[in-house]
TrEMBL record:
<dbReference type="GO" id="GO:0019752">
    <property type="term" value="P:carboxylic acid metabolic process"/>
</dbReference>
<protein>
    <recommendedName>
        <fullName>Pyridoxal-dependent decarboxylase</fullName>
    </recommendedName>
</protein>
<keyword id="KW-0210">Decarboxylase</keyword>
<comment type="similarity">
    <text>Belongs to the group II decarboxylase family.</text>
</comment>
<dbReference type="InterPro" id="IPR015421">
    <property type="entry name" value="PyrdxlP-dep_Trfase_major"/>
</dbReference>
<keyword id="KW-0663">Pyridoxal phosphate</keyword>
<dbReference type="GO" id="GO:0030170">
    <property type="term" value="F:pyridoxal phosphate binding"/>
</dbReference>
<keyword id="KW-0456">Lyase</keyword>
<dbReference type="GO" id="GO:0016831">
    <property type="term" value="F:carboxy-lyase activity"/>
</dbReference>
<dbReference type="Pfam" id="PF00282">
    <property type="entry name" value="Pyridoxal_deC"/>
</dbReference>
<dbReference type="InterPro" id="IPR015424">
    <property type="entry name" value="PyrdxlP-dep_Trfase"/>
</dbReference>
<feature type="modified residue" description="N6-(pyridoxal phosphate)lysine">
    <location>
        <position position="303"/>
    </location>
</feature>
<dbReference type="GO" id="GO:0005737">
    <property type="term" value="C:cytoplasm"/>
</dbReference>
<dbReference type="InterPro" id="IPR002129">
    <property type="entry name" value="PyrdxlP-dep_de-COase"/>
</dbReference>
Amino acid sequence: MDNGNRQQSIAQLWNPDELVGGLEAVGALGQRLYSNADDTGSVAPSLDGKALKQRLHEAKRLLRNGRYEDAIALLGEGAVNLYHPGYMSQQLCAPAAASVVGDALASLLNQGHAVFSMSPTHSLVEDEVLAWAKQRLGLAEDFVGIPTGGGSLSNLSALLAARNFLSNWRGWRDGAWPKLTVFSTAFSHYSVARAAGMLGIGVENCLEIEGDRYGRMSVEGLAKSLTRLRDSEPAVVVLTLGNTATGAIDPIADAVAVARRIRPDVWIHVDAAHGGGLFHLSSLHETFAALKECDSVSWNPHKLFFSRFR
Ligand SMILES: *Cc1c(COP(=O)(O)O)cnc(C)c1O
């Protein structure tokens, strides 16, 4: 490529027509999805991987020719349709308009959230969102939060905080910490054990408390396990507010009360990735009220938040 050509193709990356054309095409697809015009189609694309790959190449060709609307419609057809009336909400929700626009705006402005000077207004937005989340979940005033790229990273962050706190920051400073036991159930999310592996807590130190057939933790089982723990042995209890497989909720309030009575020093983490969006249900008032007594909470608004009940 000669220099003139290269400069031209680089300038093309910031072509305003492409930006506006692309966004309009996304808007057109959104309009169709929001109005359920495709409710005769299937929820998941009926094509196999090979056919989808061919479509992908076709979409690329259309994009190169500036046919944004056709290309984006094609990509939309290859996606699981969260807006379809037959979609049973397998965890992920149909995003509201403000979320989609917010995503586009965040991409356009691309602020660096590491330091305030790189993202002045956006840092304040982040503060507001976290304050809002804290209030919705009913967390204690002194809770601080961080947005992460999903529930797995939230659980990793929570276990990291637990490890640092319980080892008096020795884990962080010296890379050494006392043996730490993580109690959860067979139904807790796999990211919990993975986080324990990544953090050097060790997957072998993740112990399962028995539960009922839906995966709800037995409070008696928890009491027994905590009683058996030596006094000096630090531990983390991971409770699940809505497990991934069945949606069942651990008896959070009872488990917290029992854990605090037997071992007030254990770190209690609530994985509310799946069920956190149900904070508005009066039947779960007691469950959410117990979050105040916990040390950390994960929440995935990209799941049950915005669930659409028809
Ligand atoms: C989905 C889920 C996670 C992981 O969330 P990602 O956003 O997929 O990383 C963690 N815990 C529970 C209970 C979940 O359902």
